[in-house]
Fold:
Amino acid sequence: MEAMKTYLITGGAGFIGSNFIHYLRKQEPQATIINVDALTYAGNLENIASMNEDPRYHFVHKDICDPTLQQLFQLYEIDVIVHFAAESHVDRSIEDSQAFVTTNVLGTVNLLRMAKEAWRTADGRYATGKKFLQVSTDEVYGSLGATGLFTETTPLDPHSPYAASKASADLFVKAYYDTHQLPMNITRCSNNYGPYQHVEKLIPLVIQKGLRKQAIPLYGDGLNIRDWLYVEDHCQAIYTVIHHGKLGEIYNIGGQNERTNREIIKTILDVLQRNVDATLSESLITYVTDRKGHDRRYGIDARKIQQELGWKPATPFAKGIEQTVQWYIENQTWLQNLKD
Ligand code: NAD
Ligand code: TDX
Structure:
């Protein structure tokens, strides 16, 4: 039997990180899970409240830029770092990109330095089972035209400051592998949706506005395309890469589920009409000034992870969106308690 692993999760109080902790606990009831999170506006301890009584779960309220995190490597025999912590919202990065550089670039480099320091043995090798998993995004590839998909070899061409900071972090992870052989994988996923996502992001925003019968802002002509994946499917893909990914490799993750933003809003309004309020109307959709540098289309070619590691998305969009809307309806207090 495989030895019990110790996982260091960064950003585990955020949207995907908290979903991942729940997923990981189901997969490995005995694993030690250390969650490092600075609890920015995006971090919410309610997301992982059910872990509080778990004796093998430890929350550490720290910034990933903090050099004293090194102590964790002395306290625990950390096997896997799953690095979610980031400034994640494109619109905020357009307003001010400083925090994106600090957290996404410098914070990642701080973690890489600590992992190398703790994991490298005197002969320059690394013990088996160690891995740094960089959770990245399709936005590092830039924007697609009407055809084609992003593959792992698509050149990096980030447009927003957020995407530039993630691309930079990815390159540092790659550099630590190329230079120091630090065991790593990079995953690049498309847009996630599901429980615990902050209302600054499109899908929760539309659900909240719809429930309150308020105007729903749609940027530009509303025809920008994103490839949506249910968050639990992303968690399963990350878990698959941790356990089976070949060291040094990059894996794209996507839902083969491209939709225009307008289509997304109409689908959500339709679910709300059926479940909450039959009088809700599309007239709530309000076209607003476009996002600066707005990427037109993202689409992921996920054949590598499908063919080499056997992962594929499990949740059809119709089911995932129904579940998500239901979750927000049932968790109105969670919405009201959000910071910022
Ligand atoms: P999120 O904004 O919901 O959560 C980010 C978490 O990181 C929060 O808990 C926050 O408190 C924490 N954090 C921020 N700065 C920190 C710092 N300096 N030190 C410690 N903790 C800090 O983000 P998310 O949507 O869950 O995204 C998680 C990761 O997945 C990010 O790296 C993001 O780039 C990537 N990603 C997200 C999506 C998506 O659709 N949301 C898609 C692909 C990749
Ligand atoms: O009010 C809105 N109106 C609107 O039309 C908002 C908030 C968004 N949009 C559009 C912009 C995008 O085309 O909807 C699309 C989705 O926007 P976001 O939810 O902000 O996501 P996006 O910019 O695509 O980035 C997300 O997916 C990739 C995450 O925030 C990133 O962290 C991830 O890397």
